[in-house]
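Example 9 (inverse folding). The structure is encoded as follows.
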């Protein structure tokens, strides 16, 4: 994280008479910001006048402070810390009786809410009192403070977070970006705050909305700097979920606290990683040349979570040097000098990026982004030259359906056809998927969009990937095509849900987005150039005027019939035609093979590359049928007559063994 903020944290004593000076400083900060130059008069003492003057004392001595976690942020560099500019509070279930949300709702209604949400009281934390100085708001401090509080709750084992939020300045919408949702029927005007207040609820299992990756970063900081460096290990930290221990821990630790990682020193402590988190799919990237990243990387290496360190930066530097000057011959000394020039006096350990893959426990050292991509796609040159590579990396591709679509997504990433992706699939990996989907048994139960994102990031950690683990729905269609990090330039559609197939194409046609599909039978590649033909009928008009709404609530048989119409049932392979009546009887689902899926990934990638580069690729359907292409009569080997089977002598009858010193043996002819 490249952050200018210095965070401090302490957990206040439960005894109201033992409030440390740090807490008094925080209370004054909160009250002054909440007073807001007279907007909320309740946060000013009698000192001062009624003109809105900001002078005088500003009290905010809440009982909720005692036993709570307090996080403050300051600006500072080189050990010099300024005054606090922002603050947020986190209450644990140990002081649940004091929760502000309980006070707002009343005990009976608060308990009723938890029962309705099926939440155990001992797993619900309270988030409150997020305040930021005006001059720090424009610098995004509120975002980082909120992420830290959410990260702390997740690390301490919260199943959910609850809290009150104002609405006048869009605070509730700000929290929604972290996965907080308003509880219906709880909004009301509160005189003290001079605005409507609403109860918000957040479930940890759902991540942290659009800021999940940022919260993941701060989980490391909280656990291994703010918590561990204060003398609280994981177990004692989690004790905060129950009754507070005596004496109550109280501390203030400035962050960063660790020294820089430099030189060639390898990490000294590598232990087994803990249980895999099925929701984590994005690597954390550290650039040791940046001070804060160096600190965070040092903290990570001390966690014991790193199972394997892959540092091949010297070999990567050599590849980079040779790729830039392929005609030059380097001896040992010349290569060493070229490496030193590339490092510009720095140490190899500090160069480039360290990518942390939390799902595997691997920490991998890679070249900086542009240099890494230059080397990784160097062997594409001659077929995809560098200007074309750069054009492709500016593109964004959406992939719906990550079973068959997994091969397409990975091949697109490998070939560098797009630098950004959106992946949508609601399903999880099962054992039967392993006949065609490149994955391992340890990944059973992982969402297919998560799985594909992980695999793609392991090819290129610099990719821009967004996932939709709920699949494509009416609520997410617009976000998938236009939202997030930007609109998609091409759609790869590989799902087997009729509604999605039509709804996605309707949206693509409206937005002028080309669609490519591999039907996974007879090498059928389907291309719809809505970017050139805005009025083109969906699926080449095979379904007539059918709409997505017509595809809802279909029986299994109706769904099969509709999919057959989409792929032109009269042209499917004999093997698939014979299998369809058996589905649901002697066959559990559609038959598919890894070879067909791999071919589909190649076909989709070829079509996508042509479309995105403006090459020849028209709308239509194209068959690359391997059964036909590898038939004996297609033999093109030199010196053999057309149709000659390998090993068969010229003029020899089909099915007859070649002549030899032994007697010829007649074999039965194929029917």
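The amino acid assigned to each position is listed next.
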């Amino acid at each position: 994280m490249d952050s200018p903020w210095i965070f401090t944290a302490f957990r206040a004593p439960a005894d109201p008479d033992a409030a440390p000076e740090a807490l008094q400083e925080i209370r004054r900060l909160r009250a002054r910001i909440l007073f807001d130059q007279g907007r909320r008069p309740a946060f000013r003492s009698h000192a001062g006048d009624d003109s809105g003057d900001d002078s005088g004392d500003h009290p905010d001595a809440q009982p909720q402070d005692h036993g709570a976690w307090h996080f403050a942020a300051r600006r500072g560099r080189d050990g010099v810390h300024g005054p606090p500019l922002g603050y947020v509070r986190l209450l644990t279930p140990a002081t649940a009786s004091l929760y502000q949300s309980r006070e707002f709702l009343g005990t009976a209604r608060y308990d009723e809410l938890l029962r309705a949400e099926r939440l155990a009281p001992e797993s619900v934390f309270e988030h409150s009192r997020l305040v930021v100085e005006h001059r720090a708001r424009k610098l995004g401090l509120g975002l980082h403070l909120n992420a830290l509080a959410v990260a702390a709750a997740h690390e301490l084992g919260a199943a959910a977070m609850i809290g009150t939020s104002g609405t006048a300045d869009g605070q509730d919408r700000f929290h929604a970006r972290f996965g907080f949702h308003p509880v219906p029927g709880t909004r009301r005007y509160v005189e003290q705050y001079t605005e409507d207040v609403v109860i918000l609820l957040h479930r940890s299992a759902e991540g942290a909305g659009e800021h999940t990756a940022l919260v993941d970063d701060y989980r490391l900081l909280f656990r291994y700097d703010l918590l561990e460096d204060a003398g609280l290990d994981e177990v004692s930290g989690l004790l905060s979920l129950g009754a507070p221990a005596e004496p109550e821990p109280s501390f203030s630790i400035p962050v960063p606290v660790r020294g820089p990682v430099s030189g060639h020193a390898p990490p000294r402590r590598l232990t087994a990683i803990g249980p895999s988190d099925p929701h984590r799919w994005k690597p954390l990237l550290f650039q040791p040349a940046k001070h804060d990243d160096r600190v965070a990387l040092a903290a990570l290496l001390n966690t014991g979570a790193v199972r394997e360190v892959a540092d091949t930066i010297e070999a990567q530097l050599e590849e980079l040097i040779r790729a830039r000057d392929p005609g030059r011959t380097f001896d040992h000394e010349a290569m060493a000098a070229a490496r030193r020039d590339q490092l510009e006096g720095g140490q190899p350990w500090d160069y480039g990026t360290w990518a942390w893959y939390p799902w595997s426990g691997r920490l991998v050292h890679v070249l900086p982004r542009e240099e890494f991509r230059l080397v990784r796609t160097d062997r594409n040159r001659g077929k995809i030259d560098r200007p074309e590579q750069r054009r492709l990396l500016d593109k964004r591709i959406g992939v719906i359906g990550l079973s068959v679509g997994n091969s397409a997504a990975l091949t697109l990433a490998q070939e560098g056809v797009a630098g950004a992706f959106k992946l949508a699939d609601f399903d999880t990996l099962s054992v039967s998927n392993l006949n065609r989907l490149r994955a391992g048994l340890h990944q059973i139960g992982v969402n297919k969009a998560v799985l594909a994102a992980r695999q793609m990031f392991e090819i290129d950690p610099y990719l821009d990937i967004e996932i939709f683990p709920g699949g494509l729905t009416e609520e997410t269609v617009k976000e998938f095509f236009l939202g997030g990090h930007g609109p998609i330039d091409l759609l790869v559609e590989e799902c087997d849900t009729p509604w999605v197939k039509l709804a996605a194409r309707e949206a693509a046609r409206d937005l002028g987005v080309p669609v490519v599909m591999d039907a996974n039978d007879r090498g059928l590649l389907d291309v719809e150039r809505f970017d050139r033909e805005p009025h083109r009928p969906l699926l080449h008009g095979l379904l007539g005027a059918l709409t997505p709404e017509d595809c809802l609530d279909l029986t299994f048989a109706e769904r099969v019939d509709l999919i057959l119409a989409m792929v032109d049932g009269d042209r499917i392979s004999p093997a698939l035609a014979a299998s369809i009546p058996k589905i649901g009887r002697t066959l559990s689902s559609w038959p598919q093979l890894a070879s067909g899926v791999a071919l589909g990934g190649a076909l989709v990638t070829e079509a996508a590359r042509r479309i995105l580069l403006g090459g020849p690729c028209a709308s239509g359907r194209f068959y690359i049928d391997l059964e036909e292409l590898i038939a004996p009569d297609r033999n093109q080997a030199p010196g053999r007559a057309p149709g000659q089977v390998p090993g068969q002598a010229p003029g020899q009858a089909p099915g007859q063994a070649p002549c030899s010193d032994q007697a010829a043996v007649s074999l039965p002819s194929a029917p």
